[in-house]
Amino acid sequence: MRRGKEAYATNASEQDTISNSCSKSSTPSQPKFKCAHPDRRRHPRLSIRSDWNVQRRLDPSAPPSVSATAWVIVDAATGERTGGKEADRQLPNASTTKLMTAYLVLDLAQANAEILNELVTFSPHADSTIGSTSGVRAGEQLSVGELLYGLLLPSGNDAAVALAEHFGERLAANQAGIPTARPPSPEAGTAEEMFVAAMNAKASELGMTNTHFANPHGLTESKHYSSAADLALLARTALQSPTLREIVNCRQHGCQLASVDGYTRNVVWRNTNRLLRQHGFSGVKTGTTKNAGACLIAAGTRDGKESIAVVLGSRNSDARYIDARNLFAWAWRQ
Q1: Residues 131 and 13: beta-carbon distance below 8 Å
Q2: Would you say the C-alpha torsion 25, 31, 37, 43 has a positive or negative sign?
Q3: pLDDT tens digit string along 231-255?
């Protein structure tokens, strides 16, 4: 039995444990203390005011206080920045990385739509990738188009590796101007390494100056990072693809897998993005690791105007959605 693969619809690295808060009950024998006047020296809680409350009194148009280490919100049409905090800071970005993985594949498909019908056969290496999974096993096959759902909905790290292995040599050959029939030299590395090199080349081409990828899925590595502003730029570009927009806005997708051993089986993928349950939001990608915290790229529309928000390093899974909703609400009031 494959380790954890039966739980294909469960995204271990995208799920956060939310601790239950405990309230202290007063002891009946202890009388309640009543304050005759607000003596702040004796009762410090009376003097506690959040920076956000102070800021709001001074400037009602100030952005909300959020738990995220860094954030940005931009106009999706123009790229104009509505607001941000530490927006250009290089930070681990977890599975938001997969937006670039998908964008590279769909960029190829834009020139040749048949690419989406190509069959991908999962290797043992892809199957053994740790973390969140699409649940596809070694030897099982599915189309590129279907695998993109397995990449972006359950945030399959295994799907990212499978796509990198499938397209790495092709992307390297395209960049080097080599005919696809003749693979690049061994010095170029493995197919997965070639794919990552193409990710970095595309990031440079787009002007993502504070981004460097070390893998196609976003698991923690020292030289793997991005910034909120760079991810907003990537999202603006990637969402120009109707196919990608359709996938990231999908809450659930089913697929039939065929094995080289002759059997078939069905899988169901559920989107990790809880904002999709609310009207006006449409994607884009979640991400969670211990180092990165809870991350989110989100798109929201109000009165025909679409905005893109990115939060990196939110306190937990619930917090990233609260952060994003508060930022959207603030931006729509501007």
Answers
A1: yes
A2: negative
A3: 999 999 999 999 999 999 999 999 9
List, by residue number, the catalytic residues.
Answer: 95, 98, 155
Q: Provide the 10 A C-beta neighbour count for residue 6.
A: 11
Q: Considering only CA atoms, which of 192, 229, 214, 204 is closest in space to residue 289?
A: 214
Instruction: Give me the sheet containing 264-270, strands edge to edge.
Output: 119-121, 140-143, 252-259, 264-270
At 155-183, the pLDDT tens digits run: 999 999 999 999 999 999 988 777 654 55
Question: Look-up: residue for tokens 């109707």?
Answer: 242
Which is higher by pLDDT, 116 or 27?
Answer: 116
Q: What is the DSSP string of 259-313?
A: ETTS-EEEEEEE-S-GGGGSTTEEEEEEEEETTTEEEEEEEEEETTEEEEEEEEE
How many CB atoms sit inside 10 A of residue 65's CB?
Answer: 14
Residue 188 corresponds to which tokens in the numbers above? 């170029």
Q: What angle do CA 100, 106, 110 make, to 5 degrees?
A: 140
Helices and strands per DSSP (H, E), number in the chain: 9, 9
Residue 193 corresponds to which tokens in the numbers above? Answer: 């390494």
What is the tens place of the pLDDT at every residue in 46-69? 333 344 444 555 677 899 999 999
Mean pLDDT in the chain? 86
The token pair at 126 is 């892809």
User: Comparing 84 with 15, which gets the higher pLDDT?
Assistant: 84
251: helix, coil or strand?
A: coil
155: left (phi over 0), alpha (psi -120 to 50) or beta: left
Confidence bin at 304 (pLDDT 50/70/90):
very high
